[in-house]
């Protein structure tokens, strides 16, 4: 089974009023593909004419040069007191949910062997940089989640590159969020109205394949994303596995020029569990090894950089099943909670806010 690739251009055209009336039916079908794929696979591939492969490359180049710095110099951008929600998170800090969540461990044990995730033995060996994208609320109960950005020195192109790639990815997410809302039978702005001034984070991971490049190394242990929708551009090194709703594991191939979308826990909340957060992991696979060999041959960086962006529901907005989802069978499992409070609980569980006992 392949993930569908949805071209966002027809929807953008309709939104711009440049399309003939009969195009509307086709766009409705596309919206149903978006919501259906998020529900059944937790993921979706999209093509957005506004996000080019060249933009993605420019972003990867800048972030590769940052991660190539020494650990001490990168640690100047570390902000543990802000729960690592801005600046750098060193390797060995973030704990995969599957390491600390007993219920998830039981679920893993019940999976057939062929679909079981690789077992992480400790915190993730990946670094990460969190770069805040979009306007921040002037007044919020969750100041740490909405902090000033941290800018690394000595990289004059950093701010512009991160802001511009971040803004493009957010535009793509907003279209997907509108299409998903239509597909789910909600009003078009049901999700996007809650995303306004959300703590959206461009959050590339950086994994040193020179030091951790052996097959089976787990960069990001089995987990779900705690945010609304995650979007990734193409990484130069594969390794992302996702689990479909039917329990099957799939290694994701993102075609050139495409973006990968994944459903996060806040979407699960808003749909009363009809659309579950997509489980995934990042491990060194045979395909990663092939990409490492090619990069060595071509003298390219061996830092695996992901172009991950976490879009969020605004911290002060309430998470609860929307519209007809309040009648969903599992809706009672998703009681109202402010998005900020929910995020803080999740950050504690994965060692980014306070410490967890391992
Ligand atoms: O490194 C990646 O490709 C994605 C990592 C991931 O799943 C995450 O950052 O939540
Ligand atoms: Fe993730």
What does this structure look like?
This protein has 358 residues and is an alpha+beta fold. It has one domain (5-349): B-lactam Antibiotic, Isopenicillin N Synthase, Chain (Jelly Rolls, Sandwich), CATH 2.60.120.330. It contains 11 helices and 16 strands. Strands 1, 2, 3, 4, 5, 6, 8, 11, 13 and 14 form a 10-stranded mixed beta sheet that branches. The protein has a 4-stranded antiparallel beta sheet with strand order 7-12-9-10. Strands 15-16 form a two-stranded antiparallel ribbon. The radius of gyration is 19 Å and the shape is globular. 44% of the residues are buried. Bound molecules: 2-oxoglutaric acid (AKG) and fe (ii) ion. Residues 205, 220, 225, 235, 240, 280, 282, 306, 308 line the site of 2-oxoglutaric acid (AKG). Fe (ii) ion (FE2) is lined by residues 220, 223, 225, 280.
Could you provide a short overview of the structure?
This protein is of the alpha+beta class and 358 residues long.
Give the SSE map.
Layout: E1 5-7, H1 9-15, H2 23-41, E2 43-47, H3 53-67, H4 71-74, E3 87-89, H5 97-100, H6 102-109, E4 127-132, H7 158-183, H8 192-195, E5 201-202, E6 205-208, E7 218-223, E8 229-232, E9 240-243, E10 249-251, E11 259-263, H9 265-270, E12 279-283, H10 286-297, E13 303-305, E14 308-311, E15 318-319, E16 337-338, H11 339-349
Helix pairs in contact: 2-7, 3-7
The protein binds 2-oxoglutaric acid and fe (ii) ion.
2-oxoglutaric acid binds near residues 205, 220, 280 and 306.
